[in-house]
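Curious: can you check?
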Amino acid sequence: MSYDALPAPLRRWLPLATAGTLAATATVLLRHVNPYASGSPLPGCPMYALTGLYCPGCGSTRCLYSLVHFDLPGAMAMNPLLVLSLPLLLLMLLHNAGVTVPGTQPLIRLLANPLFWLVLLVGYAVLRNLPWFPFTLLAPGG
């Protein structure tokens, strides 16, 4: 069955349910597997391994591990953009499901623009690779 053939209410809630399932699975996994430990089964960043440059997602696994263990400063040290983006992504998923939060329409319009995310992610990738303070704080573990 294709996505378009699903009933409208199910189509509306499916992305939120999928994200919730992935979040629950990641939470259980990261409660038991430490990405900081040597020999961790969790993979590192392939871009960093190939180029030595940090991508926008570098440090995300360690960031999520820290969040799952209620270590907000540790999470911010690994990937501050991810920490700040998670509430925005939840807001977008809720909006897609038909749950509207009053006063957020201008923000939703901005977040729905792919150009916003392109500029944000590319800009973040460039800034976190600059070797000067305060940009070094954007690097994982900075």
Remarks:
- The radius of gyration is 17 Å.
